[in-house]
Amino acid sequence: MKDLKELNRSELIDEFEKAGFPSYRGEQVFNWLYKNGVSAVEEMKNIPKKMRQFIDENYELSDLKEINRSTAVDGTVKYLWELNDGENIEGVYLPFPKSGRHSTCISTQVGCGLGCSFCATGIDGLQRNLTTGEIVDQVIKIQKDISGSNFAEPRLSNVVFMGMGEPLANFDNLMKAVEIINADQGLNIGMRKMTISTAGLVPEIKKLARTNDQIGLAVSLHAPNDRLRNKIMPINKKYNLNQLLTAVIKYIEKTGRRVTFEYVLMDSVNDSPELSVQLAELLRGINCHVNLIPANPVPELGIERPVQKVIDSFYETLDRNGIQVTLRKEMGTQIDAACGQLKRNKN
Ligand code: SF4
């Protein structure tokens, strides 16, 4: 059966029109799903019984089942959900009381096929892509959790596709989810408030630039030279730093948006003073921002966080060289909020 959450607004309207229902009924269903966050057809109160029956007989509704959650003292919540086929994914809610932002970081795949040496998600490889409905449902579940069943305040303001998986490896499902999350008759989260993260899939970065959407791009860089990047991020052997940065520069030209480079600082892996100088040189002149993230320890992969002196010195070198840089405030470290860790702890 087709999942209702696979359909964007115009597809929903078409679908029901073809079945003989007036177009406003499709709009009403869209509103129920994304303005009210209902998870069952019976809850769509102004939809006639005959149409609800039709929906029940012909469609299913993605519905993630929460099987675990951890809440940190800073308000970060990490969710573990079960999908219909028994696979697990995770998502995180991050409140920023000072700026009033309510952000969420969600998954796009079960597992990941890119095998970065420092990443817990990649350990078991890729199981499968998430469907559009499963991607969108994570946002709905978190919105419902923070606002209660009235689905009103607070509203989620930002969505970051940086949970489990490589978002651009699931391009079509991701972009349809983006369209649904963005629709002003529904969740209404602006394109500029969404960010897609990538480990460096060059053809898809180019494709994303061609969509002309104003969506943010974050590139997981983690190394400033091919030798080290090949070692810790195998995708670099396919698309090296030169190819990656060329695509990123084109993305910036096309969208006019500043790109973020994520750099997870790992003890004795990529945190030396030489590498900080190399990174500053590599990014000089690019309209970008570097987000330094001290690693959360991943014991089974031997990943440790550098001592504070090393972190500060790496930051200062970038700053001194004119690179816009921030040191990510650690949110949720006590709940294992690094990619893939909650799921692994459950297994
Ligand atoms: S860091 Fe990202 S791209 Fe690399 S294996 Fe983990 S989830 Fe995949």
TrEMBL record:
Positions that bind S-adenosyl-L-methionine: 165-166, 197, 220-222, 296
Reactions listed under catalytic activity: adenosine(2503) in 23S rRNA + 2 reduced [2Fe-2S]-[ferredoxin] + 2 S-adenosyl-L-methionine = 2-methyladenosine(2503) in 23S rRNA + 5'-deoxyadenosine + L-methionine + 2 oxidized [2Fe-2S]-[ferredoxin] + S-adenosyl-L-homocysteine; adenosine(37) in tRNA + 2 reduced [2Fe-2S]-[ferredoxin] + 2 S-adenosyl-L-methionine = 2-methyladenosine(37) in tRNA + 5'-deoxyadenosine + L-methionine + 2 oxidized [2Fe-2S]-[ferredoxin] + S-adenosyl-L-homocysteine
GO CC term (a single one): cytoplasm
GO biological process: rRNA base methylation; tRNA methylation
Active site: 90, 339
Domain Radical SAM core: 98-334
Predominant cellular place of this UniProt entry's protein: cytoplasm
Enzyme class: transferase
Record keywords: 4Fe-4S, Cytoplasm, Disulfide bond, Iron, Iron-sulfur, Metal-binding, Methyltransferase, rRNA processing, S-adenosyl-L-methionine, Transferase, tRNA processing
Cofactor mode of binding and number, as noted: Binds 1 [4Fe-4S] cluster. The cluster is coordinated with 3 cysteines and an exchangeable S-adenosyl-L-methionine.
Pfam families associated with the record: Radical_SAM, RlmN_N
Classification via SUPFAM superfamilies: Radical SAM enzymes
UniProt KW Oxidoreductase keyword: no
Protein's cellular compartments: Cytoplasm
Coiled-coil parts of chain: none
Positions with a binding annotation for [4Fe-4S] cluster: 112, 116, 119
GO molecular function: 4 iron, 4 sulfur cluster binding; metal ion binding; rRNA (adenine(2503)-C2-)-methyltransferase activity; rRNA binding; tRNA (adenine(37)-C2)-methyltransferase activity; tRNA binding
Requisite cofactors: [4Fe-4S] cluster
Note: Reaction proceeds by a ping-pong mechanism involving intermediate methylation of a conserved cysteine residue.
PANTHER family: 23S RRNA METHYLTRANSFERASE, RADICAL SAM CORE DOMAIN-CONTAINING PROTEIN
Task of the protein: Specifically methylates position 2 of adenine 2503 in 23S rRNA and position 2 of adenine 37 in tRNAs.
Similarity remark: Belongs to the radical SAM superfamily. RlmN family.
Protein name: Probable dual-specificity RNA methyltransferase RlmN
Species annotation: Halanaerobium congolense
